[in-house]
């Protein structure tokens, strides 16, 4: 091939490569993706030589003859140390950039792959000593089963552009922050945006009801409740039928809206409270039930609080059916909604006045206006 030079390579070696991030290493996907997208080398100074057309390639005789093969080194940092510090630089840095994604498999056990087309920049503290180097092609020649691999030729097809780079002019830059520094919050936000689901629904914390009920509603709004259908998405397989009715797949919408028990219980609560829509069709409408009372701030919060207690009672009943085959009547479930909501509202009533139980059960709206 025109424009190639041969160099004898010994894979037994004077040079040991240490990969900071190797393509074939077993990394958690998010960490690998984050590293590739956010950490970059900034080259502050560089000079170019462009050979004239048809000219012979620039002499790169400063390459050591005994040189370790690069193993799958596409677009990665490799740190090298030389055993013979008197003859070669003790430490230098390789920045390898791909021109294609091809790779060849080698049959000997020490190195399994070699990048077919790559660009390699070699730098050290004295750029005049270790000049170039852009290598855009590397391919083992005559690697057959009959050939001994202690010594073999590697052809180096040189790029038309040569670069000098000073190791002292290199620095890390964090691309997720405009300043180039590394704030933990930028990584946290990146990971959140990558692995957490996006939803148009937002849950606003209800201060009248305890935290675990708010968290339950938040998980429902983002589709993160461990229903049977959601568990099957992460490989936990079992019958996907609703644990309460056993009729349809257990989704959030079915469990709290379409299931016969949930539907009947909600109609009872709507009849008791009188301001709630008894025929809610979707989970997002249920979570946004307080919108019908817009302008009555205190009633909005209480209205939503009763809905949260309803979700909690249904979810607990579902878990009871799933784990112990227990049963409760509709009247018992309705009583739990009334009693739990009264208890939690009384505990957080800023006026210090408790709701009267009989009045709460008979006319909750009037009782709220009187004591809240």
UniProtKB/TrEMBL annotation:
Per UniProt, residues of the Reverse transcriptase zinc-binding domain are: 193-266
Q: What is this protein called?
A: Reverse transcriptase zinc-binding domain-containing protein
* Lineage start: Eukaryota, Viridiplantae, Streptophyta, Embryophyta, Tracheophyta
Source organism of this protein record: Lactuca saligna (Willowleaf lettuce)
Q: Name one Pfam family in it.
A: zf-RVT
